[in-house]
Every structure is written in structure tokens, then in C-alpha cells.
Design a protein that fits this description.
Radius of gyration: 26 Å
Keywords: Hydrolase, Metal-binding, Multifunctional enzyme, Nucleotide-binding, Signal
Number of domains: 2
Shape: globular
Helix content: 10-25%
CATH superfamily of the largest domain: Metallo-dependent phosphatases
Protein name: Nucleotidase
Cofactor: a divalent metal cation
Strand content: 25-35%
Family: Belongs to the 5'-nucleotidase family.
InterPro entries: 5'-Nucleotdase_C, 5'-Nucleotdase_C_sf, 5'-Nucleotdase_CS, 5_nucleotidase/apyrase, Calcineurin-like_PHP, CpdB_N, Metallo-depent_PP-like
CATH topology of the largest domain: Purple Acid Phosphatase, chain A, domain 2
């Protein structure tokens, strides 16, 4: 597959080649400044940035088999980003710009899944994200935590396929302690008409330390993830010593200082603000991971008193951040005078036809794949209400997970009752009555999580459900509520509201597990009438819990899971297990897995809550 040469990126290592020098806009020196000395030269470079692309090339929703849309009118995908990038290059001058990414690139859509699992790039295919990013002309990309989802072999193949460096200063070889990927790159940019020292723009990549727990099976004993602040403090002075005039950090890490896994690791997950505050000589930070939009955030460095400008473009290619960096050349060096940031909206432009044509065949292949029929359903099932009432859609997920774990148990564990947890990942997920496609099933489980089984006591099950019940806001009394007034509660570890994926429903395979969540009671004491098989749950009874790798490794800070004995771990993807089960059964009958409905409910002092549409 050919790539348009006009925008082919050039990979630059830590010591960039002088042959790669490109021009930036620079104002000519004036006759003087009144004292007989030449006026200083000034220049401006623009660094563009994306983040959390999550496998989105096209403005397309594979699960809906339709053009992407949401209530805010956003568009997604690199084809849209390409058009925005072309506009910025046309305005600023192509040689005055750089383009970087802040991670989570190769996971998240059916397109990305297909070339990781169905026709994997480790067996000769080219990753669509590599093809698109090379064509657009990226100069560097930081690694995100989802880069590690498919294992290091696939990540290394992706690294070989892109024409730019993958950066991760805080991903280090577990044996040698040396960087496992390039920590930074310095890109020289020569001001037009100035034959002296070029402007040297350094890009430092920082990734998310959570990969150590979320993808433990893929990285344990191979890669370790020190803290962002300490690694930035180590590498930025080395970048300056290597001649960087401008230092831009591309950080797959949010700004609010929180960690979704609590104290499971000593390093803060969302540490971009701390990096800006504590590490001198950083001019700008492209922020990722948090999936929020930050057009411009100015943070004062505590050491120098200088401002650092941060910007985060919205996920999936919805936005493009731009940093306009003004410089002055005096006394033989370039100094940064100003940094201004903003975000550009992808819904203001059309898709780049070159990108559409370049990957049209791959897109069509994946559309055909996800629309292939694997079974039939006796009735329709929707996850639209799964976050506030029991649904057959989540029961299906739990049933398949529990069956797989039970079949894989050995010894005394095989005699234990099996429970399962599942979260309402996708409010739009639905299984239709009649023919069921891969797309329908995959929509129930949009993450590439794998399945484990852990052993817990009844008391630990109760504590787990109490943690899950933190998802709900308190209410003043019984009655009818809008769902958003009850769900997504703010907590100390979720200052922006608890995400849907951190609310778990628990299900019993061998006998019903039933409970109420009483919102008249305080957090930590909300789960009442907890019964297994119609009897009060015995705190001392042992259970096996079917659980995903994200949760088992500490994601969401649920109690007891990281230390619980692991009794099943075949590294099987839950989404594929669902597809395989539907294909094997042929007919999906909710009566098989959802006979006791509801298993759980929201109440106030024993009175069930109801919800307005």
C-alpha cells in the first residue's frame, strides 16, 4: 500500500539528523533598535496534537454501522484530523509545524481489533493507524496504557510500521532499567533565511503507570513504569543539554492528580499538572488519557515561576490541539517568549479524501466482518438502563463469564459456587430480536478485557458490592428520578464523577445472588437483603468470582481483588467469549440466564425507586 509522499513523516531519534532540518516562519531583522545593534529575530512554531484516538480513522460507528454521532454533534477520526492538519499547515506554513500524539492509538474500535486479532499485523498486515498516521505526517507519539493491551510483540510491530518514534520515558526495561522505548526526540527546525543555530524542538513522551496493573500479564517482568514527575525531572535537563530550545511533553496522563486504582501503585496516574508544576524548563504539555477537553490551561512552575501551557484535545480525533510558540533569537540562542494554545473541532471539516481512499478497503473489510450473523435472539435486550436497573443484557455477559470460569476450575475450586461481575460499558448496546451479528454482540463489551477467576468470601463479596454502590448519588426519598440525578456520583477517587465502567453488577450462576442498594443509607452501608439462593449470604462462604483483568488488577480500587487468589486465567478476551457463545448456542434465550429478574434494585428505605425516561 503506497503512502502519499507529500506528507510522509520522517523519524527522528534523540540525536536528529541535520539533513532533516526544515524551515519555520521568522521575521527579518530590522535596521536596528536605536542603539546601533540589529533587532532580534523572532519566529513562531506550531505544535499540533491529538490524543486517545483509540483506533478511529473514519467518522464511523462500527457497532451502529452508521456515521458517528453523539448528542454534542462531535465527529471522530484521523480522516477529519488530517483535514484540520492541512488547514493549519496552509495557514502557518507546513515547515513551521510539528504533529504529535499523546497515546492510546491502537485499541478501541472494530478496525483496531480486526488488525490485532483477526488479521493481526504480527502476521503481515499493516495497521490502519500506522498507515493513516504516516500519511498525515506525524512527527512523534507517546505511548498510552492501551498500547500494551495486545502484548509487546504487536506493539513492537506497530513501532516498526510507523515512520516516527514512539516515546515513553517512563517505560523502562525491567531487567536493565534502561528505556524500553525512545524517551524523547529533538527535531531541528531552521528559521527561513537564518543560517545560524536552528530552533530545536524537543518532544518528551510520558506514559501511564497504570499499565503495570491493567496489563500486568503483558508487561510484568518485562517493563516497569516509574512516575511521570521523576522521569521528566531526569530527562528534561538532558534534553536541554542536548540542545533543545523548546521542550514539549506529550503525556498520556490527565491533569487532576487522581488515580483510578487508588494506592495500588506509588505513582500518580493523572500527573500532567504535577509535571508542569515541579519540573523546570517545560514550555508546553499535550495532555491525554482523561478523555476531557482542555483548550488551554496555564500552570505556574514552582521552581522557576514560569508559566507552562497545557492542552488536551477531546478523544477519538474529535479535536486537534495547537500550541503556537513564539521565540526570539538573541545572543546566539532561541528563547521561548510565549505559548498560546487552543483546540480545533473536527466537526467543522470534511474527511480528507486521501485518507478515505487509502484505507477504504480495510474499512469495508471490517464493516463486513462486524455485520456477519452469528446467531439469533429470542427477544430484544438493551443495556440503555443497565446502570440503574437489572437488565438481561448484563445478565448475558455475566452468564457467559461465569460459565467459562466454572468450566476452567480444577480441584477444590471446582466445587465452589461461581459469581460474576459486569459493568454497563456501553449505554447504546443492544441485542435485537432475530438475527444477531458480531457487531451486536461486540457492542455489549467494547473493551478488550480478558477473563479471570478469583476466590473471595461472602464478607468480601459484600464489601465489593458496597464499593460498587458508591456509584449512586444520595436521594431525598422514594419516588421517580432522572437517571443522571442518581448515577455517576463524585467520590474522592472520581472527582469528575464515577464512570459507568466502575459500577459493577454481580450475578450468581449456580443460584441467584439478590440484593437491594438502599440510597437512604450512607456510603459503605447501602447493600441490604443480600441473599444467595434465597438465604442470607454467609460471610464465611467461599465463592469464585468471574472478573475482568482491569478490575482484578486494581482498576477502580475495588477492595480485596488484587490480593484474592487467582484460580482461573486463560487470557481469553471476554468480547470473543461472548461472540463464541452466541455462535455455539445459535439461539440466545434470556430465560436461560435471566430467570431471576431483577437480581438487584435501587430502593429508598425499602421502597423501590423508579426512573423517568
Amino acid at each position: 500500500m503506497s503512502i502519499p509522499l507529500r506528507r510522509r513523516a520522517t523519524t527522528l531519534g534523540v540525536l536528529a539528523s541535520a539533513a532533516a532540518l526544515v524551515a519555520v516562519g521568522v521575521s527579518p531583522a530590522t535596521a536596528g533598535n536605536g542603539n546601533g545593534k540589529p533587532a532580534p529575530r523572532t519566529a513562531e512554531v506550531t505544535v499540533m496534537g491529538t490524543t486517545d484516538l483509540h483506533g478511529n480513522v473514519f467518522n464511523w460507528d462500527y457497532f451502529r454501522d452508521a456515521e458517528y454521532t453523539d448528542s454534542a454533534g462531535n465527529d471522530v477520526g484521523l480522516a477529519k484530523i488530517s483535514t484540520l492538519v492541512d488547514q493549519v499547515r496552509a495557514e502557518k506554513g507546513a515547515d513551521s509545524t510539528l504533529l504529535v500524539d499523546a497515546g492510546d492509538t491502537i485499541q478501541g474500535t472494530s478496525l483496531a481489533y480486526y488488525y490485532a486479532k483477526v488479521d493481526p499485523i504480527t502476521e503481515g498486515s499493516e495497521h490502519p493507524m500506522a498507515t493513516a498516521m504516516n500519511a498525515i505526517g506525524y512527527d512523534a507519539a507517546a505511548l498510552g496504557n492501551h498500547e500494551f493491551n495486545y502484548g509487546l510483540d504487536l506493539l513492537r510491530e506497530f513501532e516498526d510500521q510507523v515512520d516516527f518514534p514512539l516515546l515513553a520515558a517512563n517505560a523502562v526495561d525491567a531487567t536493565t532499567g534502561e528505556p524500553a522505548f525512545e524517551p524523547y526526540t529533538i527535531i531541528p527546525m531552521r528559521p527561513e533565511g537564518h543560517r545560524g543555530k536552528p530552533v530545536r524542538v524537543g518532544i518528551l513522551g510520558l506514559t501511564n503507570p497504570g499499565s503495570a496493573i491493567w496489563d500486568r500479564a503483558n508487561v510484568e517482568g518485562k517493563i516497569e513504569f516509574p512516575g511521570l514527575v521523576e522521569q521528566a525531572a531526569y530527562w528534561v535537563p538532558r534534553m536541554k543539554a542536548a540542545g533543545a530550545d523548546v521542550v514539549v511533553v506529550s503525556a498520556h496522563s490527565g491533569t487532576n492528580g487522581s488515580s483510578s486504582y487508588g494506592d495500588a501503585l506509588p505513582h500518580v496516574e493523572n500527573a500532567s499538572r504535577q509535571v508542569a508544576e515541579q519540573v523546570p524548563d517545560i514550555d508546553a504539555i499535550l495532555v491525554g488519557h482523561a478523555h476531557v477537553e482542555i483548550p488551554e490551561l496555564r500552570v505556574t512552575n514552582q521552581v522557576t515561576g514560569e508559566e507552562v501551557v497545557l492542552s488536551e484535545p477531546l478523544r477519538w480525533g474529535m479535536r486537534l490541539s495547537t500550541f503556537d510558540i513564539g521565540l526570539t533569537f538573541e545572543r546566539g540562542r532561541w528563547d521561548v517568549d510565549s505559548v498560546e494554545a487552543e483546540v480545533l473541532n473536527a466537526n467543522t471539516v470534511e474527511e480528507d479524501p486521501e485518507i478515505v481512499e487509502l484505507l477504504g478497503d480495510e474499512h469495508a473489510t471490517v464493516v463486513d466482518y462486524v455485520n456477519s450473523v452469528v446467531g439469533e435472539s429470542a427477544e430484544a435486550m438493551s443495556a440503555a438502563t443497565a446502570r440503574y436497573e437489572d437488565t438481561k443484557a448484563l445478565d448475558l455477559i455475566n452468564h457467559v463469564q461465569a460459565l467459562e470460569v466454572r468450566e476452567g476450575l480444577t480441584g477444590a475450586d471446582a466445587e465452589l459456587p461461581v459469581l460474576s461481575i459486569a459493568a454497563p460499558f456501553n449505554r447504546d448496546a443492544a441485542i435485537p430480536a432475530g438475527p444477531v451479528s458480531i457487531r451486536d454482540v461486540a457492542g455489549l463489551y467494547i473493551f478488550d478485557n480478558t477473563l479471570l477467576g478469583i476466590r473471595m468470601t461472602g464478607a468480601e463479596v459484600k464489601a465489593y458490592l458496597e464499593k460498587s454502590a458508591e456509584y449512586f448519588r444520595p436521594v431525598p426519598g422514594p419516588g421517580t428520578y432522572a437517571p443522571d440525578d442518581v448515577t455517576n456520583a463524585v467520590t474522592p477517587t472520581a472527582p469528575n464523577g464515577t464512570p459507568d465502567y466502575n459500577y459493577d453488577v454481580m450475578y450468581g450462576l449456580d443460584a441467584p445472588l439478590t440484593y437491594d442498594i438502599d440510597l437512604s443509607r450512607p456510603v459503605g452501608d447501602r447493600v441490604v437483603d443480600l441473599e444467595y439462593g434465597g438465604e442470607p449470604l454467609d460471610p464465611a462462604q467461599d465463592f469464585v468470582i468471574a472478573i475482568n483483568n482491569y478490575r482484578q488488577s486494581g482498576g477502580g480500587s475495588f477492595p480485596g481483588v488484587t490480593t484474592a487468589p487467582v484460580v482461573y486465567n486463560r487470557q481469553l478476551e471476554i468480547r470473543q467469549l461472548l461472540i463464541d457463545w452466541v455462535a455455539a448456542e445459535g439461539v440466545v434465550d434470556p430465560a436461560v440466564f435471566s430467570a431471576t429478574n431483577p437480581d438487584w434494585r435501587l430502593t429508598y428505605a425499602g421502597e423501590p425507586l423508579t426512573f423517568a425516561p
